[in-house]
Every structure is written in structure tokens, then in C-alpha cells.
Design brief:
mainly alpha; 3-stranded mixed β-sheet; two-stranded antiparallel ribbon
Amino acid sequence: MLERKEIEEKYKWDTTKFCKDEKEFYKRLKAFEKNKDIIVKYEGKLKDDKVLLEGLKFEDKVAEESAKLGVYAFLRQSEDVRNSSVNEMAEEYERVTSEYGIASSFFDVEVCEFSDDRLKKLINNPKFKDYKRGFENVLKKKKHTLSKKEEKLLSGMSFLGGFSSNFDKFDDGDLKFNKVRDSKGKLHELNHSTYRELAESKDVVLRKNAYVEFNGAYGRYINFLANNYISDVKADCYFAKVRGYESALSASIFNEEASVDVYNRLIRKIHENIDVFYDYMEIKRKMLGQKSISITDSFAPITKAIPKKYTYDEAIELIKTAVAPLGEDYVKLIQRAKDERWIDVYPNKGKGSGAYSIHAYGVTPMVLTNFTGNLESVFTLAHELGHALHSYYSMKKQNQQNSDYVIFVAEVASTTNEMLLMRYLMKNATKKEELYYYLDRLFSDVKSTIYRQTMFSEFEELIHAIYEKGEPLSKDRLCNEYYKLNEFYFGKKVKLVPEVKYEWARIPHFFRSFYVYKYATGLICALNFSDKIFAGDTNARDKYKEFLSAGSSDTPIKILQNAGSDLESDEIFDEVFAYLRGLLVKWKALC
């Protein structure tokens, strides 16, 4: 793997959009630090509408600068997690912004102390139109807001978010994997970037050894990883309890204006349609020509066709072609992302693993990926560009307060990009073997995103509920509960290996509690949207573009309903699973 300095500049993101360099960062951070002395001047005076508006606008400026500095520090950390200089920069940013958070904690408390009548007047006051949604949320959240003194104490407890940072630093900087052998005894390098390639090997021994070692490596540190995650769970439950929520799950759902009904409906519909997953794994077993199938075969190739390798340039062109039904403006933005270096493309030593998109209001979004040229890398790039363009459209249409969309809708745009790419590839497959490959890829996505993410969410809900009931948590309890969930989701015909029980310990999203189920609802919506858009339904396309531009201007459930996907109804679930069953029937017929 190359050092970062060995990679061409055109394949690295341009962080100067946020801050010129570290010297400027510290200069601006020093200036930012003075804001904590300014904001306190508004304390106790927000009953005056003129002062309130002035204070809100000041908070906007502070938030915008904070986001730019924070994104810059985060991007620089991602380039090389071993770099002490940028780690110190991020620590200093956290210290300064935490101090501002403590100083400004009175603001939300005082607004929450407004009478319902005054809040309703502010909602209808044209001078406060930019803050309408914010005041509406205050009305909803008043009962969960504490006293000024209590809120000040809680605002200074940002260090309790350090469990995620502990994991990231361990995962990206310290964790080492042993080399793994194939059936001929040849050793292969195993790391975050090569794992998927090894898991997709035609060599059954290599993919099993890769799976066992990849999960087993986390098992070697299971005491630390379990204790770190349990501490994070305790923090979640504590904050939910002191704010008067029924549970950590209900707190998460409430704060995102999502719906317990949607969450429960997802779990119920997944359980009702678990046979789709079982049928897929049975088809996979038959096409592999095996008497049985193991969880270690999950990514095994079912055809002899060798998937094409793509250059980065080819990947961009393929994505542009696939998303063309979304319109010329959408395609041009993807080209801009490449030309203006929104994307950090290749892996390098010390670089953060995986992929993400991040943004700050008023600046183009940024994407991290670890492109290796396989089809998975192309789909990952399409996914993150979906996030980036969602951010771009929302920032362009919405004011600062409404431009940030919540997690509940975040995974819709990304997976719609993926599904448009998949439909394009399937439609243009020229050989039966090629179509088999894409069908397997689609159902692998369904397995990983709809079924597995729902399973992950059930695990989160279960572990939080155990602690909330006053029962003890331990590494063994976590591992055993996770193993049992895998037994249900994979069914009796898929063999498990002992190292399955450690898989939970490598899932970074567990440190963003109750995030993962939104991947499942996101793909369900994406399958629904892409079906209509790919078919050339211009009305569906236009509604979808309105969704991309909506930010948080309404509740996420309502935004999706307006775009044509109603998650509060069984209908969308039934339509999606009917589509998937239809594909399985056609696949069996082709075999």
C-alpha cells in the first residue's frame, strides 16, 4: 500500500475549500474561541424578539464556521490516522467547541422556557421564517429539555462520545490481521481494503480463512471491544433516561422525528419475508454446486465470469450513464465532483477505512473512498456520491437551518444511486453468466442492507433493553445474543462458524445508535424510487429531485411520503418483496 505522498494530487480531495492549512486552522480556531464570550451576552435576554433574532443569527454564523473547521480537521485525520499533528488539531477543535457548547447551553433552555403561545407566534412570524422548523421542534421537545443548569452540565459531557473514537483509532491504526492461506497454501495479505476481494474468492478455503481471521482478529481483543461498546450503551441509556425518554430507542426515534410504528413495521415485515433471504441462499448454494452452504460463502462468486476491473475514470463514466434518468444536471454534478476534487480516491497507509460523505454548509460536499477497481468499489463510489449530491441539492435549496437532512432519509439517496446502477447493468447484460452475476450482486445487497442491517438493529435494541432492564452485560452476553440472531436470519440450511459471534465488534455504526435500521428502510425506498425513475417516469423523477432538495424542511416520514414512498403503510414493503420474489422466480427459471 502506498504512502499518501506517493498518490497523485488529482486523486486527493481538496481540503483548502474548508481551510487553507493547519496554520490558518489554528488562527481561525483562536478567533472562534472568542465566541463563547459573546454568546453569554444574550443570556437572560431572549424574551425580547429583537435580541432573540440577533442571537439566532449569531448562532448561525458560529455553526457555519464550526462546521467548516470541524470538517477540515476530520478530513485531515482521515488522510492518515497515525498523524499526531492532525490528531492534536482535532482534539483542540473538540476542546474549543465543547467550551462554546457549555457557554451557549442556556440558549436552547431559554427558548424551551417560552410559553406555547409565544412559540406558536414565533412560528407564524415572517421575521423568524428561517427558524420555523426549529421552533416547531422546541414545542415537541419541551418535556425532554432540562433546567439551564442541568443542560449546561450535559453539554460538557461530549467526552462520552469518545467510545466511537476509541474504536476508530483501534480499528484503523492498531488492529493487525494475520495473512491467510488459500487451498494451495499460498499466503494472502488481509486488511480492511482486501477483505472483500478475498471473501469473493473462488477458492472456498481462502474465503473461509479470510472470514475466520477477519472476525477472529476482533475476537482477540473482545474484552476491550466489549467493554468499550457496553460503555457507549450505558451512555446512550443514561442520556435517554435523564431526559425522560422511555428508552434509548425511543429517544433516537423521537429526536429524528421518525416513527416507532415504522421501526416495528420494518422488523415485522422482515420476519414475514425472511423466506426471500432463505430462497436466495438456496439458489446460491445450487449455483455454487455445493451440497451445503456456509456463512463464509456469502460473497462467493456463483459464475465463472471474471468481473471487470475499472479504472477510476471508467467508474465515474459508468455511474454518470447509470444515473442519467435523473437528468443532465445530476450527471454534471458527478463530473464536477471529479474535476473539483470532492473525492479522496485511493487507499494509503494510515488512511481511514471504508467510505463516507461529509459536508459543511456553503462548501461542496466531500467523499472518502478506498477505490480498488472492483465492482464493489464502483458501487461504493456511486453510494457516497448519492450522499454528496443529496447534500448539494439540500444546501442549494434550503437555508442553513433546514439544509441538514436527518439519518432516517440519509441512506435513501445513496442506495437509489446504487439501484439505478444495478438496473442499468442488469438491463445491459449480454450474457446469461453476466446476468447471474448482477442478480447475485443485487440479492447480496438485499441480504446485507435490508436483512442484515435489520438484524444489526435488533441486536442494538436487545443490548440496550438488557441494560435498561437492569440486567448485566458482558462480552459473552453480547457474543451469544449476536450468534442467536444469525441463526434466525440465516436459517437452518446455512452453516455458521464460531467466529460469527465476534462480528458485532467490528461494526462502527453501533456507535451511532439505531442508525443501521435506516439502511434497510433506505434500500426499500430506493428500490421503490429506482423502479419508477429507471422506467422513465418523469413525475417520479421530479418528485425524487424534490426529495433531494428537501433537507429537513419537513419531517422525514412526510418528505418521503411526498416523494411517493410511504413507510407508514405495508404497501411499499409488499411491493418491494413482490418485486424481489419475482426476480427469484425468473432466476430459478434461467437456471
